[in-house]
Amino acid sequence: MTCAVRGIVCALMLVLAAASVSPRAFAATRATQFALQNGMQVVVIPDHRAPIVTNMVWYRVGGSDDPMGLSGAAHFFEHLMFKGTKTTPSGEFSRIVARNGGEDNAFTTHDFTAFFQRIAKDRLAIVMKLEADRMMNLDLSDENVNTEREVVLEERHTRVDSDPEARFQEQLEAGLYLSHPYGRPVIGWPEEIRHIGRTEAIDFYTHHYAPNNATLIVAGDVEPDEVHKLADQIFGSVPGRGIAQRMDIPQPPRLAETRIAMTDRDTKLPVLMRIYRVPSYAEATPGVAESMEVLAQLMGGGPTSRLYRTLVMDKKVAASVSATYDGMDRDAGEYTITVNPREGVSLDTLERELDAVIVAMAGASPDSVEFNRAKTQLIASATYKRDNLTDMATDYGTALSIGLTIDDVEEWPDRIKQVVPGDVRKAAQTYLRKSQAVTGRLTPPATPAAPAPARAPAP
Description:
43% helix; five-stranded mixed sheet; 17 helices; globular; alpha+beta; 11 strands; Cytochrome Bc1 Complex, Chain A, domain 1; six-stranded mixed sheet; 2 domains
């Protein structure tokens, strides 16, 4: 089965399955939220299908909170949290989790840093104790800081500096956000990473890593009362600290489109990418973010989408297309369109055809078939996502970390169902404006023209 056919079959299966699933099934298991005396927030999401749990600790600090001139500090500190304490030497955290049959990891965004373990229910206390230990007893020696700084620099080299598309997108993000912190890479600029030392690490730890700046989320085979008791016993003794106040940094107005043309010798295929700065769930008026979500699914959510059918199937100018809405942010969200041209098609031609699709989306409401299919796919995807405890806990953690509520998570399918075709058209008209976007072209170097053959001398 080809990829295109397989994608269409999968999309149809989602539609058929979700048609029989009430949106209320998404909220069948409701979360419970409470706070410990030290200010730590706790969320419990019961799910008794298997005797396992996901334990997550979310800190309300991310790349946008990096001190000026020290981009990458939050991501760097994610690494440092695995360097150990007096009772748990460096590297032992993950080894303990693995010996108990679990798995662990962590991630950092512009708005938060999260650590998680997936483990058997009867091992929950073990991972909670490990998290509480490093929340207050982290070993920030010169050796640990210096060693991990080199690890982070190598990670940046591997993930960004050696990847032309990653470098390209990093430049686009910087152009999109102007002076706002979202324009700085979460992993940091290399020269700024090199300036993060022990003093900076201790200051960051002291002012961000505390129970009163954290949310504990436990999803799985548990009940709120037992988690409350366990969290009180283990995290309740960790003292709160004075936390650095998060800055609400104004977003500079965008007055015109930004265009970036980048040539990279490591690029094999040309890329056309456009990123719009759009409202996020945290800052949008009711219904706007949901309309953007449906718009992205309708335009670029797979082989049944408008972009795929028009640019790949009908016009045959694109080899691949995608459109995504990333709205789970404290400040602005992003609407991203990425297109690869078919061989022999110029980027000028591709961009004209892309613009024509966007104009059509803004000029007329979508027909009922494609519109309902897009909404059904979104709801089905969210419903099936809840089969994974870590994904489910991540939805709650992300929402709470950017200022949303449990209700915002559990009512999301109903809010998607309330979107009407006119909302999607209005969203395209209002927010897919080039003045709010950066358009980038990534191309391989031009092939040098072959030298003309030497002309024989005239007789």
